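Ticket opened by: R.M.
Priority: normal
Category: complex prediction / small molecule

The reporter submitted a protein together with adenosine-5'-triphosphate and asked that the result be attached to this ticket for the collaborator who will pick it up next week. Submitted input follows.
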Amino acid sequence: MRKPKSKNFKLQNRLSEVKEIELLESWIDSGRPDSGSNPLSLSPPPKKSPIGKLPDGSFSPYAGADKFFQLPLSKRTKDGLADKKFSSMTDIQRASLPHSLCGRDILGAAKTGSGKTLAFVIPVLEKLYRARWGPEDGIGCIIMSPTRELADQLFEVLTSVGRHHGFSAGLLIGGRKDVDTEKERVIKLNILVCTPGRLLQHMDETPNFQCPDLQILVLDEADRMLDVGFKKEVNAILSQLPRQKQTLLFSATQTKSVQHLARLNLKDPEYLSVHEESATATPNRLEQTAMIVPLDQKLDMLWSFIRAHLKSRILVFLSSCKQVKFVYEAFKKLRPGIPLKCLHGRMKQDKRMGIYTQFCENHSVLFSTDVVSRGLDFNKGIDWVVQVDCPEDVDSYIHRVGRTARYLSGGRSVLFLAPSETKMLDKLQEKKIPIRVIKANTKRLQSVSGSLAALLVKFPVLQYSAQRAFITYLKSIHKQRDKEIFDVTKLPIDEFGASIGLPLTPKVRFLKQKVKGKKNSEDLALVPESHDNVDPSELLRGTASTARPQKAEVELDESFLLEKNAQLLEADTQLLGAENEIDIRDDGPVTRVLKKKKLKINVHRPVGSRVVFDDEGNTLPPLATLADSNTVSDSVKLDKDKVSQRYAELREMMKVVDKEDKALDHQRRKEKHREATKGRPNKKGKKYFNSDSDNDDDERRKSEDNTGIRTAPITLAEQEELALKLLSSMQ
Ligand SMILES: Nc1ncnc2c1ncn2[C@@H]1O[C@H](COP(=O)(O)OP(=O)(O)OP(=O)(O)O)[C@@H](O)[C@H]1O
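Result attached by the on-call engineer:
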């Protein structure tokens, strides 16, 4: 970055800037609907740029400005904007820039994809430029975002638009290993783009890290940054920043909570919600549909949807990392004919970034959690946003669908709602979201449960993953605050388990209790299921209460399941040796079991009492174990033997089926090839096989090498046949 050449030049420049700002201020004041200054009055926003008539009757040079070059911006910023071909302002830019350039605090709200990023990047550059910020001045601006990917994207925009300025900027996000190098450099930076956790880490650990002269603070996705999830971090950060600074808050779903805003010490903020009067809360070019899909058909529907859109870029939202992992792994093995990717918060940062970039480049399906739901502007756009699990609220819906139809482009979204979640439709309509309910075409619905069941038998790790997905899904529903929409007792649990390929429905005891509790709470008190808090003498009299914290029950149940899984996996590993994809180092069950076991500690349990479980996972009364000390261990052992035996049988059967399949497939390929190359011998006079060349088939071959499964996709008839065989063997 070049500095102005001479003192005279500097002065001239400065004077013209001051004049421009004065003009800008009077222009804004002339158009302000309410120039009274109540800090949190949130006065209604001007619908368009204020008319630029100045108090003395003359017209401001910025009247009706809708191009960037009409604003009093530095040449360097204008050049940066021109390089990126930004010329006209969007609504939010037109409404907010005149205010933010005057140094006012802003609460900006505008639809997703409407250009909020530039609405804060430009004032950041201008503020520091006008303050003649230099390397020796330290940190002048902090831009915070809730996710690493979004921080990375903001950093990109800042560095590209600000490339003609000479400020130093740094990206501080979690998951990076080079913290020590970062610590050396961070205090010399002028602009920090960061996630709250990493910034706080530097505030705590980096010597001399301070920002007493901070000029401007930006919170992108402000409502998210100020809600409970980031409350501790953000409060700690705010406590270390100077009170005198400009603050810019932007989001598509802006917070109006006075409580939230009071923490920020805003001064006479401008509340600019440019689309408040708009007929819809989502982008106009977004076509939104919803389908009522029973929970046990959601994966079938998703599979059929993907198979019908092989030439699209599809973003699929699921509610937890474990669901994302399971659906991705399982669908990958079923080879839908389009590359699949997954992204969730538990992945390593490098991998996360790699996947994000790849998804931006190619046609593919990205399974993800809400980690990508906010702010991200995927290159080349997304064709479809598919919400398999209902979002937790309307705001979350708006951000998810907002990943498509950005700026001037179009996009489509589909929401799968279970019959018990249809109340969501009313809530969406209340908030001006034009969503069309369509009927699923059941004729085109392809079932995958049979194939999933077969996969789960073949890959114990997948079975484990399915169980975890099953439990976390139910847990997530149970934890949702909006009970009008999310009622776990209304879900078809057994059918859901079967639909994801689980041969038996895992026990989720909090659920059993919930259902029972709904039916007859008195019965529950008379027939105690758990006794670990209970005085044995009360039990004998039948007067004990079974009340226990629900959370503990969920965890106990899960840990029991995990323990069982670990036993199964151990047996499987020994039986199958290295040919199976069992990885118990990284994310594996054994470590998890050890971790989860800790959760068994029940703080409400009297000291010295011991919890014993029967083979179903229910706790047994302490006296029962005294009466027959062998019962529990014997039954668990029996169960373990039975299960391993069953698994051994199923595996044998799968091997036979697999062999037949391979032979059949080999035969088919041979015939196909023979027909294709009839009378066309190759150079050596021998025949050869064709090889497919598209990406997906590459993936297919790779997965064949790794897994040893057959090469051709499983047809529907084969799936059914396989499922029937499996079912009959299980009966
Ligand atoms: N003035 C402009 N002219 C042309 N394109 C623009 C302009 N401003 C922004 N864009 C483009 O619009 C797209 C969306 O912008 P941006 O990511 O800032 O949206 P947003 O409002 O922050 O969305 P979200 O609410 O999802 O965070 C980007 O691709 C950006 O390059």
